[in-house]
């Protein structure tokens, strides 16, 4: 029945400023009216709606003001360079002190975080294959730590 996510919405203070930011990320403009703009994430499949209004003042919480964009593993490895190239700074996730992308073995994904001009939390995220022996590992690992762990062990047949 469900095939994927069609849309997500974020509150913004200034629609024009936010539109420029999302264009910088390479999202394709779909349409705009007086207080709303939509950008395709995947043309014809998923988009994000930006809604201008006081709701941007709502305190951040992942259930309210967060969006993760799917990328591939190699792009995520280069994400800090890409973000810098479009004039965006990565931010640490949670209690982490580094902005470096990281792996969550127990979730089977990897991420890097950044914010839009209104403090909405944005994430670049990819799926990773995790050997069964590591599926309960809750420690967040750098790409270097992850690749060293995988390269130095005989997990390949388990992927």
Task: Please give a structural write-up.
By secondary structure, the protein is of the alpha+beta class. The protein has two domains: about 1-60, 2,3-Dihydroxybiphenyl 1,2-Dioxygenase, domain 1 (Roll); about 60-159, Signal recognition particle alu RNA binding heterodimer, srp9/1, CATH 3.30.720. Helix content is about 20%, strand content about 30%. The strands form two sheets. Strands 5, 6, 7, 8, 9 and 10 form a six-stranded mixed beta sheet that branches. Strand 8 and strand 9 form a beta hairpin. The relative contact order is 0.16.
Chart the SSEs and their pairings.
Layout: E1 7-12, H1 15-24, E2 28-32, E3 36-42, E4 46-52, E5 66-70, H2 73-77, H3 79-85, E6 90-91, E7 102-104, E8 109-115, E9 121-127, E10 141-142, H4 143-151
Parallel strand pairs: 1-4, 5-9
Antiparallel strand pairs: 2-3, 3-4, 6-8, 7-8, 7-10, 8-9
Quick description:
This protein has helices at 15-24, 73-77, 79-85, 143-151, and strands spanning 7-12, 28-32, 36-42, 46-52, 66-70, 90-91, 102-104, 109-115, 121-127, 141-142. It is α+β, with helices and mostly antiparallel strands and 159 residues long. It is elongated, with a radius of gyration of 17 Å.
Strand content: 25-35%
Arithmetic mean pLDDT: 93
Q: The CATH topology of the largest domain is what?
A: Signal recognition particle alu RNA binding heterodimer, srp9/1
The CATH architecture of the largest domain would be 2-Layer Sandwich
Provide a count of the helices: 4
Q: Rg to the nearest angstrom?
A: 17 Å
Distance between the termini: 28 Å
Order of helices and strands: EHEEEEHHEEEEEH
Report the structural category.
Answer: alpha+beta
The shape, in one word, is elongated
């Amino acid at each position: 029945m469900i095939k994927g996510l069609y849309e997500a919405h974020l509150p913004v203070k200034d629609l024009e400023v936010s539109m420029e930011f999302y264009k910088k990320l390479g999202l394709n403009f779909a349409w705009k009216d007086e207080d709303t703009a939509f950008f395709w994430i995947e043309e014809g499949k998923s988009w994000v709606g930006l809604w201008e209004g006081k709701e941007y003042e709502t305190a951040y919480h992942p259930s309210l003001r967060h969006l993760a964009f799917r990328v591939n593993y190699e792009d995520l490895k280069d994400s800090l360079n890409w973000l810098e190239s479009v004039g965006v700074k990565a931010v640490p996730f949670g209690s982490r002190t580094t902005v470096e992308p990281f792996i969550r073995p127990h979730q089977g994904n990897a991420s890097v975080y950044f914010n839009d001009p209104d403090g909405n939390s944005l994430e670049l995220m990819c799926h990773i294959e995790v050997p069964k022996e590591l599926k309960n590992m809750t420690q967040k690992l750098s790409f270097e730590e992850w690749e060293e762990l995988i390269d130095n062990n005989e997990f390949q047949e388990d992927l």
